[in-house]
Amino acid sequence: MKDFDAAVIGAGPAGTTAAIALARRGLSVLLVDRCAFPRDKVCGCCVNCAALRELAETGLGDIPGQLGAKPLREFRLYCGNLVRSLPLPGGVSVSRRVLDAALVDRAVASGVTFRQRTSAKLGSSEKNHRTVLLRCGDDQQTIRAGIVLAADGISGSFLAGDPPIVAPRSYMGAGTFIPMEKVPRNYRAGTIYMACATGGYVGMVRIEDGSFNVAAAFCPRTMKIAGGPGAMATRILAQAACEAVPALRDAPWHGTALLTRRRRQLGEHRVLLLGDAGGYVEPFTGEGIAWALASARLVAELALEPWTHHTVARWTQLHHQTIGRRQRLCRAVTCMVRRPKLLGFLMRLSDGLPGGNFMMKQFNRGVACPRM
Ligand SMILES: Cc1cc2nc3c(=O)[nH]c(=O)nc-3n(C[C@H](O)[C@H](O)[C@H](O)COP(=O)(O)OP(=O)(O)OC[C@H]3O[C@@H](n4cnc5c(N)ncnc54)[C@H](O)[C@@H]3O)c2cc1C
């Protein structure tokens, strides 16, 4: 049995950056992911300025530029027959395929041991360590780690004993890519196009290779009635008076679990949860990567301290005060987005208000450099 100071489960932005932070502080770190890298992930692929700042503060700020990420300048919101455009204070679009692979490369360069195509299961609990069972094809291995960071994403079941609480009427996520030649010309690089209608919303952005990344949140029942994600996205674009993207209907879509979920406790003995595994809301404000990176930075600090009976409670409280605070704001925004009539009313009202489009700016807060 091999020993590590820390084992990190999941090589998304949360897991890789936590692993890097710990390795740089001299810990022996194992990073495990069940997928083969590079891999795609359903995501809007918008890295907002808070996320860019987190990357810069961990010395990873050069990565988006190296990957050819497209700078974001505009957020365009479509609802009913209304369109509103907001300038963005920063952020870039880059596919998760290349971003996550680059983060894994940096983790390996920082001394992290990386195992891909390996799924992890939580094993026994001892006073000074946890065991983790690793499975890669027919090979099985057990390792021991002083601390386990579970960054296994929204549908992660690493901490199976304490499942997340899924919000009633939660939307599900869905995503696809449209090749460059099938994207109508009016859709420019540097703009996030967001169409909202009854039963969901669709976000579209050009990524580093010019293709269109499409990510959506749908009411599962409405989507089923509409005839699937392609038909639902097409309908939302039509209802929101957003230019049609004919290739959406028959594109290969991927779905996610129900999105809005939280955890009562963010861990158990010698295990801490971070990133989406610790709770998620909805993608409308495009903050998930920033939450993942911020939670990795905070949890890595805590993981360096000696483990006590209070560690899980301290992490739960810290998360609640930092990432949880942003998630509650995002939840309030998404409640509004779910009501297209109310959203349209607010869009119209904001035009007539003195002081300009204050309300519109609230929609944009997620991409407007929040501090966590
Ligand atoms: C539709 C949609 C649109 C979004 N748009 C945006 C956006 O534009 N901007 C933004 O910032 N955020 C967005 N998000 C949110 C963002 O994708 C997530 O918040 C972010 O990926 C969380 O990172 P993570 O590291 O916690 O988890 P993930 O990136 O999900 O990584 C988890 C990893 O764990 C691995 N794993 C799971 N279980 C195991 C196991 N048992 N053993 C080993 N490995 C395991 C998985 O293979 C995966 O690689 C969006 C989300 C959705 C659903």
Task: Tell me what you see in this structure.
- This protein is of the alpha+beta class and 372 residues long.
- It has a domain at 2-41 and 96-167 and 260-330: FAD/NAD(P)-binding domain (3-Layer(bba) Sandwich), CATH 3.50.50.60.
- It has eleven helices and 21 strands.
- It has helices at 13-24, 49-57, 63-66, 96-109, 220-226, 229-239, 288-303, 311-321, 323-337, 340-352, 358-363, and strands at residues 2-9, 29-32, 46-47, 70-71, 74-79, 82-87, 92-93, 113-115, 119-125, 130-136, 139-150, 165-166, 172-178, 191-197, 200-206, 212-218, 254-258, 261-262, 267-268, 271-273, 279-280.
- Strands 1, 2, 8, 9, 10, 11, 19 and 20 form an eight-stranded mixed sheet that branches. A seven-stranded mixed sheet has the order 6-5-14-15-16-13-17.
- β14 and β15 (200-206) form a beta hairpin.
- The longest helix is centred in the C-terminal third of the chain and has 16 residues, at 288-303.
- It is globular and about 60 Å long.
- The mean pLDDT is 93.
Features:
single chain; 372 residues; FAD/NAD(P)-binding domain; seven-stranded mixed β-sheet; 28% strand; binds flavin-adenine dinucleotide
List the helices and strands and how they pair.
Blueprint: E1 2-9, H1 13-24, E2 29-32, E3 46-47, H2 49-57, H3 63-66, E4 70-71, E5 74-79, E6 82-87, E7 92-93, H4 96-109, E8 113-115, E9 119-125, E10 130-136, E11 139-150, E12 165-166, E13 172-178, E14 191-197, E15 200-206, E16 212-218, H5 220-226, H6 229-239, E17 254-258, E18 261-262, E19 267-268, E20 271-273, E21 279-280, H7 288-303, H8 311-321, H9 323-337, H10 340-352, H11 358-363
Helix pairs in contact: 1-4, 1-7, 2-7, 5-6, 7-8
The structure holds flavin-adenine dinucleotide.
Flavin-adenine dinucleotide binds at residues 9-15, 32-35, 41-46, 51, 119-120, 151-153, 156, 158, 173, 175, 215-217, 256, 259, 275-277, 283, 286-290, 292.
